[in-house]
Specification:
Four copies of one chain form a homotetramer.
Chain A lengths: L35 E2 L2 E2 H5 L1 E4 H6 L20 H19 L3 E5 H4 L6 H22 L2 E6 L18 H20 L4 E4 L5 E2 L7 H22 L4 E4 L9 E2 L4 H10 L6 E5 L1 H6 L6 H8 L3 E5 L18 H13 L8 E3 L11 H27 L1 H9 L6 H8 L4 H11 L9 H10 L2
Parallel strand pairs in A: 3-4, 3-12, 4-5, 5-6, 6-8, 8-10, 10-11, 11-12
Antiparallel strand pairs in A: 1-2, 7-9
Chain lengths: ~450, ~450, ~450, ~450
């Protein structure tokens, strides 16, 4: 294997060509990395990241079908293939013009027959990753440990009924934290795919939650010990593979973290496809997490609202991404988080170029979302309507409520004096029409 | 109107007749109030309650159709009708043999044209209610305020963008708390039907959540001031009438309460029909709330899993009610909460006797659920399987995890010494088969 | 009451002002009625219609709340109010610039205490409607009979277990057909809101389907007898108010119609909010009905994908309406059907102007959808990709399949000769990216 | 490999032991094969079948995890393993006491590198299968072809945009029909897992439906040619793996079949887990297919109503299976169809005995369902209530409706003479309570 091998021949660095035609799919028509909006470059607002597992490890297999995606980097022994994959990935990041990537420990390097061997594999491959990062300037948005694919985790990792499995997960996370530090990852994600239950009949929920909290506390302690600075993130998902996952949605995780006194150590990595599976609207958990000061990062993807499982499609709905970007701008950006494309090409999209097309489509969609959100905010029409809508809380009786100095007795007195409130239109359709103006 | 008027002529006190035939629907075949199971009477375990709104105020109107239920107690002026309704209700409670009822302020007494008039109506009707309670021994399980039906609340009560509406809600709750104390209610429920949003476009989520927390704090303070002893309960519901309700499910409410430091003042009133609308299994929120020590009471009803709105049907599924009763027994009962039938006869069930049949069916279902759960627990087969499943946490390394004294470094050392954990079957089907033995 | 009374003072005829600003919500920025696209005016492609029930009869009541919308035309006796309402509606149609409206018999004129009285009311009000139609040029897109709101229909109309109710429904439909003919309606719709079941336990599905088919046959016969030319349409809906409605979705209705030999007499009126409630994507039933040659008309509205009931919101999603218009153009238009706004302002949208804003927003959205679809079709890039994708069926072996002259034996021979087919990328992301170019 | 090898050592023939205790999970407590109910043995009513794919080919892999189930019969070359698997399966069928099994062509014998090789493999393995069938008396309930797992089918089989793939599917089905005939299969199933679309953007629905119909017509012709007597069945599923599958649910398939004149050649194989994914109640499609005379067979399994994908769990809900058996008895049985357990042990159920426990649990559940349904029918209380409910259609005006000899004019005359119908309670809760008596 030579570093010089090219995995995407015929595809050059993707350029910004705003006037390209409808059939031109290998250029950006909206994403212009260095363009400044509201004092920051598009690149800084969007902080795009490519995910390693779907885009470089995905096979196209699904529960009803075999592998469809045969990638040129999957050749040789597992370790040889791991290295080729890394070269292919960095070629992709660079040609696409994305500055971040994310990975699970087991995507990066193959699991060995012992923990020691797995760790050794990881050391070897991450040496190469570090070298490629330094060569290209591409960085790690976040690292996560795969605590769900190996059969040992079938009944849970941190919530497994067998403490031996818990220990394995802990050992794996210890190494994951070391690797994250080594590579300068800006965040570290926990996704508890098997932390939940298949059947309530064989599950002691209270015990499992206690074990999960204990597990997180150990991770916090070890992170502090090694002096790592990355942000811990929990990624909620309601179900799949579990019937019920404890980290159901943003509010479930917030409730859990606050119950166990862990909330100052974690933020949330919200994936909209998980949000919609939890029965919420696309932007719901992003808005909710942000309202509680807990929005750390976003796994940018989408599902189809008529489907009940995680499809991890590339996000291309302009309305949705506008809503996401509006929330992100309003909280001042996502740093150190970003927009990670936890998305995969369809298993029927078997051409190598489809990997580029999909990312270009999603990046351009988000660039439009950013532009739209900026226009909405800079125009100020919506914010002015909102300010007026809530104006009663900025003075007098309303201000007392905000300040916590009113009482039910005050309220009764206020009503005895002022009588029935006026009915005020919510004007939802007007807001919708105006929103449509911008998209 | 004379107290002697009989509203359910031809229907006598419902009796326990365990050997009655399939067509006998006006007797209990399973519910035997005084029978003792696991040291407590069935009545004490089940603490059944009848809800006032559906059963005595319901008209059968739905969004696509007019009133179908014409009740003999709805005659005369609003206040006359309110009194007749109360007599009818107490006749019903007594004949059915249920010791508790629940109501909204506005079910009990008609809203007047001013707050003062509404309060006066409430005083007058609750005087009669108190008298009937004393005569019959029937008690109030909980009171709640209707903060959603009046147009003033269309944009929310505690979360209304207009503080004037907030004040009205506060004044109304103040009176509701007074009434609850007067009638000796054992709990007081908040259901925030309009506390959420229809459109994210016109909503300031963070502000509304702050206002809602401020509102709850005032209620806590006033309850303490009047020396009331009832338990505060919040009833989660994910949506309907709102598109999104802040009290989405058990974990959302727990997260909210803990964030605002309110968790010691509230427990949850779980309604399984709301739980299933939130995308969970029937028993999920009961199990979850119980695991967090927050299960206060249950609104016993059911939906149809294929429908996306609240149908408030009478709970008759033996499997489901067995799961509920098992959880309740395991936490030592529901006191001061109970099983309130927040359920309504179908609008097509227009016979007066249908009201009895529906309650009898649900009470008998729960009695079967209780008997099943008691047998499961007393047999001990399932609990023995569970004990074995989690046994690794009762000693050695597992116990250190439970006690919070282990670390990631310990875990790594444990794995380096002990290697790969053993794969252990979860045996879900065995648990299911055994569960079926009991139902 | 004088015809000269103005119900929407201060609102003038809505104009096309393509360069209006974001806050200008009482003008069209995209809908330009007379502009010609692909050989037809926008008005002809879109055939907008306003629905009478939501926009002129709606009260804003919901299952959890009382009336919020107090309209100036609801004054006086029921018949006086019916006339005012008609004047208000025609003022609205005219100011909005819409050429069609739709109504249920019972929206138009109040139900009397007997069938005769109801019919008389209908005669009187439709005389006025006809006069206003002639004055304004506004026409009836379709008439339908309300066979679901009156308590007599609570257990179904054509599928009621009591033939007496069936007879009532038949008598009502007979009059409805007469009225439709009198007013020159271009279509007649059947929506079977109560044709289904609440409980399978008390339902004889086969019998009820037979009765429903018999009912439709009588309607066909009577329509022919009176020489009416309007198109019969069935509007599918999966559930609500029923737990299960027989006309679940497009394919269910097609199956029913073909089973009973009724398919040449009916087409479908597809409502996307019903489609999504049936678990399909927004455009699914429109595409499906069109593929089977059965798409007759569209009830243009939308739901929220995270909600499980019919919200009848104004359609404003540009992606969705583009998909709808593309399908409509590809089948050569909807005539004699149209785009009927079976949509209601939110109950919180209490200002009279909200009724205009909502319609303007939806009309502009559809105008954008039409423009987008025209560009997609005229550019030909997508259709060229599609043509290539299916090209193997235009000649040789594929053509034999299309013509029905191939056999399994031929297929086996073909494979023995040609071996394994080539894997061809489906290129979904490329299609999505290109689609996004147009919206 | 020796036929004498035992794959389930320690497990003997499962016996009927009605008084076994709750922890005894390797015996039937309800299923007594030879017991006669309503003139037929339980075995004849239930016609249980074991599915080959889940129970003998399943690996426990899921989209988030690797293989967990390591079976002793998966050893050696693919062909050796195929033979071991067959022996293991027949040992299982015999020990379990089930008389039928079902399989996909590719479960039975490994796919070769050419069609010819695949067919040869199939010939060799089915020779052995035939021999084992003759030895044990176990028969084939149905055969089906796997037209979804191989990458060639990723864009569809009969609906693939490339006619070359269609040809491959046809060649494979030809062989499948030959095999089915050879083994004396009583039915042949088509499940169109990839017959639908992932994206409407790249799909020509009308063309694909035409191709699918042409494909079915060829299968009908070939079946007739070889003189096969098995029943053709189509198995509906709404989605997964496709976003939308054309055979969405029972009514969709009925509509399709009738449109293309194929309905006399096919019946339906209903899988309740698919039914619930389509948004219906568990029993819906069984009831619907039966009402249209199209219920041919049942894939007995269940999902969890809170999950949006096919979990293929073993059916253990007594209420549900009672409803299914009631429908089956009422249509006079399922012959030549049966109850095929298209169900898999959870991937966490890694013990070999779990395979037995799961089947025993499901068979016992269905035996209870059968017993319950027989009691409901024999008691006659429910049928008497139903007869009364629909009695108006057995004479006079109602009978004219049934006979198709009434008209809208008759109906109007009837109402003018008889006025308003009486309101009659639907008595849903009474039906539910009585139903509960039997379960």
């Amino acid at each position: 294997m030579a570093a010089a091998e090219e995995f995407f021949p015929g595809i050059a660095r993707i350029q910004y060509e705003p006037s390209a035609g409808p059939g031109d799919v290998l250029c950006f028509k909206h994403y212009n990395a260095d363009e400044v909006l509201m004092g920051r470059t598009m690149e800084d607002w969007l902080r795009f990241s490519v995910c390693y597992w779907h885009s470089f490890c995905g096979t196209g297999a699904d529960p009803f079908g075999f592998q469809t995606l045969h990638r040129p980097w999957n050749e040789g022994t597992p370790m040889e293939s791991a290295k080729k994959r890394l070269h292919a990935a960095f070629e992709f990041f660079t040609k696409l013009g994305v500055k971040y990537y994310t990975f699970h420990d087991r995507d990066m390097a193959p699991e060995g027959s012992t923990l020691e061997e797995s760790n050794k594999n990881l050391d070897e491959i991450t040496d190469l990753a570090l070298q490629l990062q330094n060569q290209t300037g591409v960085k790690v948005l976040w690292v996560t440990c795969n605590l769900f694919a190996h059969p040992r985790y079938m009944n849970g990792a941190a919530t497994n009924p067998d403490c031996h499995v818990l220990a394995y997960a802990g050992a794996q996370v210890k190494k994951g934290l070391d690797v994250a530090k080594k590579l300068g990852a800006e965040n570290f994600v926990f996704w508890g795919g098997r932390e939940g239950f298949l059947s309530i009949h064989n599950t002691d929920v209270a015990a499992e939650l206690n074990h999960m909290a204990a597990f997180f506390k150990m991770a916090v302690k070890y992170k502090e010990k090694i002096g790592a600075k990355f942000q811990f993130l929990i990624e909620p998902k309601p179900k799949e593979p579990c019937r019920h996952q404890y980290d159901y949605d943003a509010m479930s995780v917030i409730g859990f973290l606050k119950h166990y006194g862990l909330d100052s150590h974690f933020k949330l990595n919200i994936e909209p496809n998980h949000t919609t599976l939890a029965g919420h609207s696309y932007e719901h958990d992003i808005v909710m997490a942000s309202a509680f000061g807990m929005l750390g990062s976003v796994d940018s993807n989408t599902g189809s609202p008529d489907l009940g499982w995680d499809t991890d499609q590339f996000p291309m709905d302009i309305r949705n991404v506008t809503m996401v970007m509006k929330t992100i701008i309003e909280q001042g950006g996502l740093q150190p988080g970003g927009l990670n494309f936890d998305a995969k090409v369809r298993r029927e999209s078997t051409d190598l170029e489809d990997l580029f097309i999909a990312h270009v489509g999603a990046m351009d969609a988000f660039a439009r979302g950013l532009r739209n959100a900026v226009r909405i905010i800079e125009d100020g029409i919506v914010s002015e309507m909102m300010k007026k809508r809530y104006s009663s809380f900025s003075h007098g009786f309303g201000l007392k409520v905000v300040e916590g100095s009113s009482s039910l007795e005050d309220m009764e007195a206020f009503i005895k004096q002022n009588g029935e409130p006026k009915i005020t239109s919510g004007k939802q359709e007007k807001y919708e029409l105006i929103f449509n103006h911008y998209i």
